[in-house]
Amino acid sequence: MRALQSVTPGGPETLLVREIDEPVPGAGQVAITVHACGVNFPDVLVIEDRYQLRPPRPFSPGSELSGVVRTVGSGVTAPIVGQRVSASLPFGAMAEVVVVSAERCTVIPDAMPFDEAAAFQVTYGTVYYALVGRASIRAGETLLVLGAGGGIGLAAVELGKALGARVVAAASSQEKLDAALARGADAGVLYDRDLSDAVRAKAFSQALKAACGEAGADIILDPVGGAYAEPAFRSIAWEGRHLVVGFAAGIPSIPMNLILLKNAQIVGVFWGAWMARNPLAGAQDMRDLMALYAEGSIRPLVSERYPLERGGEAIGRLASRGANGKIVVGIVSSENRMDD
After folding, report:
1. Residue of 1, 121, 131, 271 with fewest CB within 10 Å of its CB?
2. How far is residue 333's CA from residue 308's CA, in Å, rounded to a whole number?
3. Residue 17's beta-bridge partner residues?
4. Residue 178 burial class via C-beta count within 10 angstroms: exposed 0-12, middle 13-18, buried 19 and up
5. CA-CA distance, 179 to 313, in Å (whole number)?
6. How many C-beta atoms surround the C-beta of residue 257 within 10 A?
7. 93-98-101-104 Cα dihedral, nearest 10 degrees
C-alpha cells in the first residue's frame, strides 16, 4: 500500500510517497480503508520536529481521516466491517490503510461526504471541548474567534452560534472574514497581518473592543497566538476565559498583570491529549457533534482538495495561512476514491 511519509525532518518538500506493508489491527483496533484525510496545523509542525509529539520516523502525517472499516481486531464489536467512519489519531492518517483504536472511530451518516467527514473530528472536536469542556460557555455570552477564516475558526463560529453565543470573528483578509460572516458570525474585525509595532497592536485591540461591546469578550478562542494574543486579551471581559488552542503565529507572551486586573483565566486546550485520557467522553462529544451536523447547525467548509501525491503541497498551503476553511487530501487507489 502507499503512504505519504516523513523520512527526515523538514518542510513539506521532504515528504515522500512510499510503498509500505499494510498494517494489521490488534486487540481493540480496526483497520480503515482511507478515503480522505484532513490537514491541520500540527501537520506543519510535526514533520519539522517542532510539535510536542515527535513520532519515530518514518511516519505519515495526518491526524483525522474518513473511510470504510476493512478489518477489526479481537474484542471489537463496533464499528463493524463495511461501516463508513471518521477517526482521529495522533499521526499516520495519510496512508491507504490506517489502524486506529476502535473507540476513536465515529460512524458517519450515509449522506455525509468523505471529504467533510475527514475535515470534522479535529476541528469541531477541539472547539467543542474548548467551549463546553474548558470554558463552560453559556447562551448570551460574547465569543471572540481569532483566525476566524481557518478550519478551527470557522468551526468556532458555527459552534458558538449553535451554543447560543454572540460571535465576533477576527481575520486577516476580507475573504476569510466574509467566510466567517457567511457561517453566522454576528460581527467581524479585519486586522493587519503585521502587528509587530505598538500602534497597529493597539488599533487591533480597540477594534476588538468596539466589536465585542463595552463589557468585552467573555470567551476568546485563540488558535493564532503570536502578536495577536495580547491585544485580544486586552479586550477580554471581567472573569473572561482566553482559550489557548494553538500558535499559528508563534508562542505569545501576555503580561501577568493583565490576567489579575481582569480577574480572567488563560485556559489550555489540548484536545488530543484529553481524548487519549478520556476516550468515552470524547466519543460522546463526537455523537453530540454528529447530531448538530445532522440537523444542519454545523458543516465543514472544504475549500481545497489534493491527491495523496500532492499531500506535501497541501501541508505547505496550510503553512502559508492562505487557505479558507479546511484542506483535505484524497487517498486515491483502485479500490478507494473520494467520489465513491
Report:
1. 1
2. 10
3. 4
4. middle
5. 23
6. 8
7. 40
Q: Is the peptide bond before 113 cis (omega within 30 degrees of 0)?
A: no
- Hey, what's the torsion of the CAs at 90, 171, 225, 313, to 10 degrees? 40
Per-residue pLDDT of the chain (340 residues; tens, 9 = 90+): 999 999 999 999 999 999 999 999 999 999 999 999 999 999 999 999 999 889 999 999 999 999 999 999 999 999 999 999 999 999 999 999 999 999 999 999 999 999 999 999 999 999 999 999 999 999 999 999 999 999 999 999 999 999 999 999 999 999 999 999 999 999 999 998 888 889 999 999 999 999 999 999 999 999 999 999 999 999 999 999 999 999 989 999 999 999 999 999 999 999 999 999 999 999 999 999 999 999 999 999 999 999 999 999 999 999 887 778 899 999 964 344 444 4
CB 104 within 8 A of CB 87: yes
Among 86, 48, 32, CA closest to 64: 86
Show the cell assigned to 92: 499516520
pTM above 0.85, yes or no: yes
Amino acid at 55: P
* Long-range contacts at 40-43 (CB < 8 A, ≥ 24 apart): 40/64, 40/122, 40/123, 40/151, 40/318, 41/223, 41/246, 41/248, 41/318, 42/246, 43/315, 43/318
Q: What angle do CA 173, 255, 199 make, to 5 degrees?
A: 45
